[in-house]
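**Polypeptide and fold**
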Amino acid sequence: RALLTEHDPRFLFQKILQNAAELCGAETALLLVEEEGGALAVRDAFNTEVNAEEVEISQQIARKVLTGGASVVTADAQMDSGFNQFQSVVALHLRSIACVPIRAHQKVIGLLYLTHRYKTGLFSPETLELLEAYGDQAGLALQNLRYLQQLRELNAQLQNRLEEAEEEIDRLKTDLRSKVKNPYARILGKSRAIVEILQLLDRVSDTNLSVLILGETGSGKELIARALHEHSRRRKGPFVAVNCAAIPENLMESELFGYKAGAFTGATRDKRGLLEEANGGTLFLDEIAELPLNTQAKLLRALQEREIVRLGDTKVTTLDIRIVAATHRHLEGWVKEGKFREDLFYRVAQMILNLPALRERKEDLFLLAEHFLERAAQELNAGKTPRLSKELMTAMAAYHWPGNVRELENFLRASAAFAERGLIRLQDLPEFLRRRLQGKNGAAAEAIPN
């Protein structure tokens, strides 16, 4: 059992020889192993140095064992005419000699060559029987080692082929991206939900319809808004993005409509509002549900009349803008509750795009992951895009991703820093990242590391 569990060739050879010598009381021991082509080579020695004389006699006797298939033994080589003809037997003063086959699957794959210079009759029939049984055990261990080495070589070859295939795939992807023009290159996905979104974009991009994008936080609403602008007739005009939730209520009106110098304390110069900045292009009102009701009324009037007046001014500025709005709220519900003006809702929601959450388009998960890992590799100056282990991919596929695409991107940017030899493994990630994936239905996503 000890032989079968040893996978280091050096230690295995020494164990085989040491155990054999202890079993029969031999002074020295050599291990001869058949190599490719049938040649026998001395692979290791116990309690002796491998010299030319030892090799000569061991090889000659070994050939007899290979030819006859049985052990060759002498009680006193000095008196045995079958042995004393070898000058090396006389020179080395050898007395007891045994050459025992090492078998595996009924085939001799090696030999044990055991000697003693002083004792005669060392290898009795009983001892020889034990040595031959031991030779069979050693044969299994050597055969297992040979299989293991072949398996390692095969794994190395497969790994090299896999790396070559991955490099070829990367090359083909790069080549394909350079040849195929994707009109929505930044919108990644092959799921039915994304395909339907892209089909709607084809329909409405080049119109002047106001579009309301509904979707959870982090699902890519601004990306869709930019795609609408870039594929519209207004693409050469400005794209102005406004996060309505980030502007304080007391500054909302001046930010949207602008002001004239002296309109209020601190207004030292004229300032164009965001509506005016977007003239000739697209105004993206992100989180439009967070607009105060009084601002909603003024915005509605500006959109209907297509004109604005800056605060503190009397000059009318004509507007030529397209409105694209977005929210993670259930806006129709807010209309019913009186939190959002119904007339403004219909003005900004001439077309509604429902953006799916990442958990609703799981088939896009690893397509997005590959894209984010490529970007992470560039940020880290890594020569090669890291890959995800099977365990990590399983955990990612089972996770709820409450933060959607944004959460996935940030998770992979952090995880890429822990890649080892181009592979990101679940067990190599820090605890807070592992906990995030292992949280039930994404509940652990907001867990703060200790």
Observations:
- The longest helix spans residues 125-179.
